[in-house]
Amino acid sequence: xxxxxxxxxxxxxxxxxxxxxxxxxxxxxxxxxxxxxxxxxxxxxxxxxxxxxxxxxxxxxxxxxxxxxxxxxxxxxxxxxxxxxxxxxxxxxxxxxxxxxxxxxxxxxxxxxxxxxxxxxxxxxxxxxxxxxxxxxxxxxxxxxxxxxxxxxxxxxxxxxxxxxxxxxxxxxxxxxxxxxxxxxxxxxxxxxxxxxxxxxxxxxxxxxxxxxxxxxxxxxxxxxxxxxxxxxxxxxxxxxxxxxxxxxxxxxxxxxxxxxxxxxxxxxxxxxxxxxxxxxxxxxxxxxxxxxxxxxxxxxxxxxxxxxxxxxxxxxxxxxxxxxxxxxxxxxxxxxxxxxxxxxxxxxxxxxxxxxxxxxxxxxxxxxxxxxxxxxxxxxxxxxxxxxxxxxxxxxxxxxxxxxxxxxxxxxxxx
Length: 416
Prior knowledge:
There is one protein chain. By secondary structure, the protein is an alpha/beta fold. The chain folds into two domains: about 35-60 and about 315-410, Aspartate Aminotransferase, domain 1; about 70-310, Type I PLP-dependent aspartate aminotransferase-like (Major domain) (Aspartate Aminotransferase, domain 2, 3-Layer(aba) Sandwich). Helix content is about 40%, strand content about 20%. The protein has 14 helices and 17 strands. The chain has helices at about 5-10, 15-25, 55-60, 70-80, 90-105, 120-135, 155-160, 165, 185-190, 215-225, 295-310, 315-330, 355-365, 390-410, and strands at about 35-40, 45, 50-55, 110-115, 140-145, 175-180, 195-200, 200-205, 210, 230-235, 255-260, 270-275, 335-345, 345-350, 370, 370-375, 375-380. The strands form four sheets. It has a seven-stranded mixed beta sheet, sandwiched between helices. A four-stranded mixed beta sheet has the order 1-2-3-15. It has a four-stranded antiparallel beta sheet with strand order 13-14-17-16, covered by helices on one side.
């Protein structure tokens, strides 16, 4: 090992990796909570050899868990064949994935797919789709929901209904308005100057907040009546996570477009905008592009991931495990658990006290990875492959974490 290589190596033990991260990585993410070095199935291991049950899955990304044979084979086979040729050309895995996504989303023959590299990029494409729909008209307004999250790039950030995230980057891209998540508010906000309404079926970053009953159905009727696009952000809810391939399918509607990413690649960075009907004709040459989007390697891996989800019945598994997890969490009897919301394997555990970060830290100490979506919500987004054994272990570890925090609150004299 030469001197340069030695200098760039990172210790897997002790504080050295934390020092490296603090010195070499931008600080937009804050301090890293652990250094993970390998994974298998629903488990990951840190640099000191400690094993964790992963119930976050890279924030709903690792749909097949870690190092799944289908994922590994797809990466290695395609990497040894063809990785990238640019979008001046097409490749077989790109065309196959586009056809598969159209079939799973139910677009019919008129659907089209634009490939990106992330969810934020997919939403940037959706933003442009809305602008193209309004091109040459007075349709300059785009509506989204307060509390919604659509990404951190400048267009996607304008769509994101979180003023605290926008504050340091003002002014935002103009034309976006954020409204309350009620049918009355949507109806009141609409007129024929609206180009599109962009909405998450479940607001994941807001704390796994579900839309009111019948909301998507009403949104479809209102947007259609006013000639506006209905664009559904399925980045966190897609790829089978809610017990349907895409969450809009629970409502039985047909949107004009959806955005997808996260789980469709199973850990490989890929996103897409999928259009339906007349919206498929809005883009024309020169209106959008990506150097890496739709590369042969990414599309081959995503195709293999979706094929495995389909052949292994993991969409149905997500639906079945929701019932099991909900019942198990309530049965823990913890005074900290106030309820469970969400759908499929995207669940939010509502806490009775704003101690979510403490619960996450305690869970990590016990060997469980979960996420604090906000101060009083624990987000669960495990791999779609989980079964009885993983759920039983999760309930044991999560119960222990809740007890640790409850005991600490009692010692402090606070209500548990």
